[in-house]
Amino acid sequence: MTNATQKSHYWTGFRMGVPFLLVVMPFGLLFGVVATEAGLTTLQTLAFSSVVFAGAAQFAALQLMVDNAPTLIVVATALAVNLRMAMYSASLAVWIGDAPFWTRAFVAYVNVDQSYAVSINEFEDTPDLTVPQRVAFFLGAVSPIAPMWVVATALGIWLGEGIPEWMALDFAVPICFLAIIAPMMRTLAHMVAAVASIVFALVLAGLPYNLGLLGAAVLAMMIGAQVELWLTRKAAP
């Protein structure tokens, strides 16, 4: 395998990752603004986006911190929101599990919803790619996303309340996840889990400290898993 081939897959991934900047930038701007308004310093906010590196979990944890929720609840909620990353990792391991350890460690660190969605679709559609080609594609897909998340957070801190209301940054969060999730609704189990998560989130919305979100996530995953098992048994000879 030549370096030219890997570069080709890198730039293919890069081009597929660029469109996500349309939602990543507003998402990061919004976090910078909200975190600053919540009382975090510039260093704390930038560290939050650079170290935690998980937008949805950051927003969930920040809201609980503002509400003075117990530390255990803050940590548990952030972990629950990011539990999907463990499933992403298990899914990616099938395709790049033979890569060197430090490569896999770096992929795990920079892995986000957008890079996972783009990469897993490419791997499934082109199963004959080699491991180096898959890694190159993944790194290409995440290259425009990862640094711009931190840059957007910094811009949000700097611009603050100067951002005009017509930009409606709060719409970036649901739009981002709709853009990611919609193409992945490929099986009945996926759709059932998605609907179940919505229903339970609404039913449990009254619980304190966003515990309804935790409950909805766990129940939806359990239901989706059961549907998957049922479909597997049904398809078995």
Automatic annotation (TrEMBL):
InterPro entries: Brnchd-chn_aa_trnsp_permease. GO terms for biological process: L-valine transmembrane transport. Keywords: Cell membrane, Membrane, Transmembrane, Transmembrane helix, Transport. The keyword rRNA-binding does not apply. The keyword Glycosyltransferase does not apply. It is a multi-pass membrane protein. The chain crosses the membrane at residues 16-34, 46-66, 72-96, 135-157, 163-181. One of its GO terms (cellular component) is plasma membrane. Pfam families: AzlC (PF03591). It is found in: Cell membrane. Belongs to the AzlC family. This is AzlC protein. It comes from Pseudooctadecabacter jejudonensis.
